[in-house]
Amino acid sequence: MIKINKLETIILVENDPAVLSVVEDVLVRAGFEVLVARSAPESLEIEKTFKNKIDLLLVDVRLPGTTGPDLGARFQKLRPDMHVMLISGFPGGDLLLLNYGWYFMQKHVIAQVLVERINDVLHTPKRDQGTDRFLTEPSILGLVAG
Fold first, then answer.
1. Is the pLDDT of residue 27 over 60?
2. Within a 10 A sphere around the Cβ of 136, how many other Cβ atoms?
3. What confidence score (pLDDT) does residue 13 get?
4. For 96-124, what is the HEC assignment?
């Protein structure tokens, strides 16, 4: 059974409409307030205009023109208390993100696992180790989607 939450706010950034729709539906059914963005620029505009707390950035690792880690770093500067969780359909993506101290999940997960993982992220102290130990340039990693 999926746990119902207390309307913590998640900004979901995903450029694939099918994935966006499914993940948004899962999160809304679980009781989260979901702010939906189809691109990095749209997510930054939402962040700028949304005056209440945003608890979690849930973002795809690959986005047109940028990467999830880069967007996560920008959001962390704007809202230092916000948690970051990255999702990807590509295997091994978690290895690229370990140094950020952020959470990672494969896109192909069932609803209950996604909600449980988000609850774990939201109710665990933030992890931050910096990014000086691994190469994280999008061009080097081949992560910038076209």
1. yes
2. 18
3. 97
4. HHHHHCCEEEECCCCHHHHHHHHHHHHCC
Long-range contacts of 97-104 (CB under 8 A, 24+ apart): 97/61, 97/69, 98/134, 99/129, 99/130, 99/131, 99/133, 99/134, 99/136, 100/69, 100/72, 100/73, 100/128, 100/129, 100/131, 101/126, 101/127, 101/128, 101/129, 102/69, 102/72, 102/127, 104/61
Residue type, 37: A
Give the containing element (helix H, strand E) for 20: helix 17-29
Q: What confidence score (pLDDT) does residue 134 get? A: 46
Domains and their CATH numbers in the chain: 9-130 (3.40.50.2300)
Confidence of residue 74 (pLDDT cuts 50, 70, 90): very high
- Please tell me the least confidently modeled range out of 30-34, 103-107, 131-135: 131-135
More confidently predicted of 129 and 49: 49
